[in-house]
From TrEMBL:
Protein name in UniProt: Ribosomal RNA small subunit methyltransferase A
Pfam family, one: RrnaAD
Signal peptide coordinates: none
Superkingdom of origin: Bacteria
Family per record: Belongs to the class I-like SAM-binding methyltransferase superfamily. rRNA adenine N(6)-methyltransferase family. RsmA subfamily.
Gene this chain is encoded by: rsmA
Length: 266
């Protein structure tokens, strides 16, 4: 096969890395694992003995068609634990996965790098059954996903990820374990879902986050003026939320953003 860059096809050929990913994922025997982008199946083969079932979502029809055969040849005793769904993980619905079997409880994936953040956010939003997981992503993306307020790489992905789960870095992975070798290093991010930080519409909170970081260097009074309708209204909402109007988005936690959205909700 010829790997395509567009689909982020860099395959892990190192058995130690694959074992490390599975060990770091902290799977229980009862877990149903959602694997995004199984590719040639190296991670899939290591996941199957460690959990109850694997649902593998692969966008590339050639790879999706080939995977059951690979598992049938390499791990015939475990082949009935695998379901392959040929689909785009960024758009997949809970309903599409429901027909594939029991709801997935864990996400474990070596993600296609160009869409890693939107895939993780989409799956956490769409599948409330996902309680924990471990993903391999580009090292800089891992930093951003796990960053807290005040960190220089804290931004939209950090806050949105924190809405759904506690995210933490779980080690780095050298580029040499991939074929073809990518021009970036990778890192692991582990997560555990947590209750939503507030009883407020997620879309409303994310709209505040997008507005606050669209003009990162500005104070919230200025950055949120367009979102609120005017600088005065932004100031009123911020005061009601107990957030200083002179603060910047990069200083706020997801709970602060939730309070701002709540204060703006009639
Ligand atoms: C980085 S490779 C990982 C392959 C394999 N898991 C491994 O570790 O060797 C990413 C995989 O995701 C697939 N992929 C890319 N975009 C996708 C999408 N939107 N939905 C599902 N799979 C996707 C690619 O075809 C590729 O197989």
């Amino acid at each position: 096969m010829r790997p395509t860059k567009k689909l982020g096809q860099n395959f892990v050929h190192d058995p130690n890395t694959v074992r490390r990913i599975v060990a770091s994922a902290g799977l229980a025997e009862s877990d149903v694992v959602l694997e995004v982008g199984p590719g040639l199946g190296s991670l899939t083969l290591a996941l199957l003995p460690a959990c109850r079932a694997v649902v593998a979502v692969e966008i590339d029809p050639v790879l999706a068609a080939r995977l059951p055969r690979t598992v049938g040849e390499r791990a015939p005793g475990l082949a009935d634990r695998l379901t392959v769904v040929g689909a785009d993980a960024m758009r997949i619905s809970a309903e599409q996965l429901r027909v594939a079997g029991p709801p997935p409880t864990a996400l474990v994936a070596n993600l296609p790098y160009n869409v890693a953040v939107p895939v993780v956010l989409h799956l956490l939003a769409e599948l409330p059954s996902l309680a924990h997981g471990l993903v391999m992503v580009q090292a800089e993306v891992a930093d951003r996903m796990a960053a807290g307020p005040g960190n220089k790489v804290y931004g939209v992905p950090s806050v949105k990820a924190a809405w759904f789960a506690e995210m933490r870095r779980a080690g780095t992975v050298p580029r040499s374990v991939f074929w073809p070798v990518p021009n970036v290093d990778s890192a692991l991010v582990a997560f555990t879902r947590r209750p939503a930080p507030a009883d407020v519409d997620r879309g409303a909170v994310f709209a505040v986050v997008d507005a606050a970081f669209a003009q990162r260097r500005k104070t919230l009074r200025a950055a949120l003026a367009g979102w609120a309708g005017s600088p005065a209204e932004a100031e009123r909402v911020l005061a009601a939320a107990g957030v200083p109007a002179t603060a910047r988005g990069e200083q706020l936690s997801v709970a602060d953003f939730a309070r701002i959205a709540q204060a703006a909700t009639p």
